[in-house]
Request: fold
Amino acid sequence: MTASDRPALPDLRFRNATLCDKSWVDEIVLAENSPSADYNFGNIYIWDKYYRQLICRFGDRMLTKLRYDGQPAFVYPIGSGPLAPAIDVLSDYAAAKGYPMVLRGVTSAHREALEASFPGRFSFEAEEHTFDYIYLAERLATYSGKALHGKKNHCNRFEAENNWEFLPLTRAQIPGCLDMLDLWTEENAQRLEKGVSYEHDAIIRAFAAFERLGLEGGVLYADGKIVGFSLGEMCSRDTFDVHFEKAEINLNGAYPMVCRELTRMLLQRHPELRYINREDDMGIEALRRSKLSYKPEFLLEKYVAREIRHG
Reply:
C-alpha cells in the first residue's frame, strides 16, 4: 500500500500522559477492574521514558499507543462501553500510518472479548515474560504453609538479628531511599543489564510525584538505617500492584521482610484487598526464580494480538 492509498488518519489526539490526566484514567481503570499491571496510571506515567506511551480518551475507553522493542503498537483499549468502535478506530489509525495493527497487554478475558466481537480477525501469541505474578495477600502477610516456610525463617532471623521497624513511606524518607537505590543500582547493574537504568529512572519519577500519583509504600529500617523500600498502587478493587521493591541483597531476610510488612500495612488500609500483583519477570531468570519462590496463586497470562484482516 502506498501513502496515497492509505485511508485518512482518524482524529485521535494521542499525547504524553501528565498528572492532569490521572482523574479520568483512574475512572477508566476502575471500570475495567483488571488485576493487570499494564493499565494503572502510575505505571503509564513513571515508565514514560522506556515505553513512550501516548494516551487518548475515546468515549469511555482509553487508547494507548507505544513503542515496544522499537516497533509501534497499541495497548488493549480498557474501559467500558462498546469494544468494536475502539478497535476499529485503532485499526484505521494503524492503516493510515502504514504499520500493522498490534495490541499488547491482552489478558485472557480481553482475548475472549476480541474473539467474540471479531471472530477470526486476530491471531494471539502468549508472551510469558509479560505474565504478572499474582499472590494471595493473606499468604504474603503471614508466609503460612509449608511452601513459604523458608521465607518465614528468613524473617525470623532478620527480626532476631536486627533492631528493625517498618514505616509508611513519606516524602521525608525519599532522600534516604534514593541513597539506598544508588548503592543498589551500582551493585546490581551488571546482573540486571540494561533494564536497571530504565527502572532507576522510573523510580525517581515515581518518587518525584509520589503524592499526586497516589502511590503507597513502606520503608524497612535496621538499626536506624534504610535497608529496603517498596511502593505501588491499587490497580483494581481487590488487587495492589507493587511497582518497585528494593532491599539490601546481602542482608538476610530483608527482601521477605519488605514484602511481608508492606502487605500487612496494605491489608490494614484496604479491607477489600485480596491479591498482590508483583508484576512480570521481564524475561530475567533471576527475577523469575525470585517471584516463583513466593509461590504465586496464579500467573496472569498476556498475549500479543495481531490483526489478520480488517472487515
